[in-house]
């Protein structure tokens, strides 16, 4: 007899007075088996950050460029009033719990006084050559309760050894070692696969670099096209396609190779490795500050949020400090508006007061009602039924006052700690289909064609490899979406 049948028998025995309830609670419903691959604790924590910050600042800021040559004079690096604490105002305004600094971009100029090159802040007039932007950045972040991360460009247009395999890999690793050991705890290391097609050929020893991160900052997330922890999404526009699996086969991805964008964007439903995508995008047209540019509108940023965070990604948003060494007040104000809008939309759940039922429930700890409790660590799990792939559903029954509470956004979240499973889903309000899609993952947001009212909201699922485990269903009203075309 299966555990589920035992549970039903126990319940029946309690009802018929054959045994005392104490005996019945002993036969507790088990959680479902995970579906491999599953995220590590660090990957889960990273996913739940949802929005993180990027700061591109360096030689390009002072040459008004996006890509330097490597021949820039360090004397050009002269921020008049650099204040990394002010950068954290930007991170805090965006509600970001992690900020990543570009410590060295492709031009090779180092924002810290590396012992392995003369091409760094040490040769600049800033603080008479005694400054260290990485130190100020890490200290400001940690003082503000923001985790710090660093980007160190593999492609280096300055270093003379670039192109000599062993010599340059040693140089890169020596610098990585400085960053990993000199600035306290680091939560993400960013390995950019980009370089020009006509750039000098160079074989990077990514595995040696990654293992060094593991050794020196064991809980840090490692980003590259191929992970190992999080992957590039295949574009720099702040969106992922409507199908987004956190899983890929790492062995199919060559870092920096062209033609892998589509695979990175979709992921692989049968992927053997958990490597979720991160959407990097900049708040302005450029990654570096240019006087002639301004921040994206609130509406553009919200679109980006829906098509990144709302499709199972983490959004990595860049805000470039200017030549003074400060993030523009206007950019910080835009970030604050962005966060305020997210709080306004998602701070109120119009599913409040609803009850939930489902196609099946496996018992107390895994009841359908868990999708309404606002917690990531509780979830609805149906009974295990071998071989079944679709026809799972959860239904919210809203209270009578729901008639006065229209919504135009539906939020669905899988409990991805147990793996990503949903391959198709449909949303019905009082029996009328209002949205549908493929994957869900950590978070899936649907913007509806317009505000709807209704007493019942039913979500139907088809799931791979195992039944769906759903941690949340939420209903929200986005005032910015009213009167906008649907998507
Ligand atoms: C640096 O920025 C922080 C945060 O905005 C601010 O409190 C501090 O006064 C600034 N420091 C200077 C020297 O302006
Ligand atoms: C790099 O190597 C490839 C193949 O080995 C070759 O086709 C290409 O021309 C080289 N590029 C440069 C810039 O030397
Ligand atoms: C590579 O090509 C780009 C144009 O595609 C050019 O601007 C750049 O100077 C070239 N770089 C090198 C190192 O030849
Ligand atoms: C990834 O690996 C799985 C398991 O070996 C396999 O089923 C799947 O086809 C692979 N994906 C691709 C795109 O080859
Ligand atoms: C702003 O100026 C930079 C540097 O001259 C240029 O590359 C960029 O295209 C300009 N941006 C816009 C939006 O015109
Ligand atoms: C940089 O931004 C700060 C904050 O908005 C501003 O005070 C300063 O004038 C800006 N610098 C330049 C060169 O625009």
TrEMBL record:
Domain Glycoside hydrolase family 29 N-terminal: 75-337
Localization in the cell: Secreted, Extracellular space, Apoplast
Primary enzyme class: hydrolase
Keywords of this entry: Apoplast, Glycoprotein, Glycosidase, Hydrolase, Secreted, Signal
BP-aspect Gene Ontology terms: fucose metabolic process; glycoside catabolic process
Main location: secreted
Pfam families linked to this entry: Alpha_L_fucos (PF01120)
EC number of the protein: 3.2.1.51
UniProt cross-references to InterPro entries, sorted A to Z: Galactose-bd-like_sf, GH, Glyco_hydro_29, Glyco_hydro_29_N
Record family assignment: Belongs to the glycosyl hydrolase 29 family.
Protein name, per record: alpha-L-fucosidase
Native organism: Triticum aestivum
